[in-house]
């Protein structure tokens, strides 16, 4: 199984080990320990597939629309080279790109649509909340009032949370302000060497919440997580990104609901598309 994001490999690896206890499973990503032992099941970032040629009997590409795989033709060729010539390949994603759908239609691939989660509950639907002049507030070293109220409620109710920011600069500007509410709150981004540990600490209830960029939009499952998006109208938050971010909420069978709020200073078409797509999926039985 290949995926563009290291975080997805780190998330899936212990789950696969738990389910497939009688076979050897390897996780391959940048910085992982080398292991020469043969593995029947390999979880790898797509970059790691440059190491293989005609090696795999079955290839599954998870989060097939994610950056950088969806833009990088070299990575796409590496995936095809790594599997055996006659090996089947499956592309898995909640938000297939137009390119992937066109290819599926043109080449007449098989297609499966799963609208419901394993626990059978509806997907949490994002709500829209205005947050005017939020950038100016952070520049004045203040958390916007509505956002601060939301965070305080999460802390009071002992609910872990993600707050997604459109830029690293704005997120880092805000981090120290949130730490005044609770010292365990931290921030993560793609170049953060401690990202893996910070996410694990949140999962283990050692942190109240994380501020993050879109790096954590996929593949992360935290029990009872609540999610806010700051500046949801920013172009970085495409409808696909907002659907994936919303998908962090309600994944656990014990906590199948939760809050997903898009804080904005103007509702965009991408926000509407994301919400409408989630509502559409909830109409399927």
UniProtKB/TrEMBL annotation:
Keywords: ATP-binding, DNA-binding, Helicase, Hydrolase, Nucleotide-binding. InterPro entries: Helicase_C-like, P-loop_NTPase. The keyword DNA-binding applies. Residues 142-285 form the Helicase C-terminal domain. GO terms for molecular function: 3'-5' DNA helicase activity; ATP binding; DNA binding. GO terms for biological process: DNA recombination; DNA replication initiation; double-strand break repair. It comes from the Bacteria. PANTHER family: COMF OPERON PROTEIN 1 (PTHR30580:SF1), PRIMOSOMAL PROTEIN N (PTHR30580). This is Superfamily II DNA/RNA helicase required for DNA uptake. It comes from Solibacillus silvestris (strain StLB046) (Bacillus silvestris). The lineage of its organism: Bacteria, Bacillati, Bacillota, Bacilli, Bacillales.
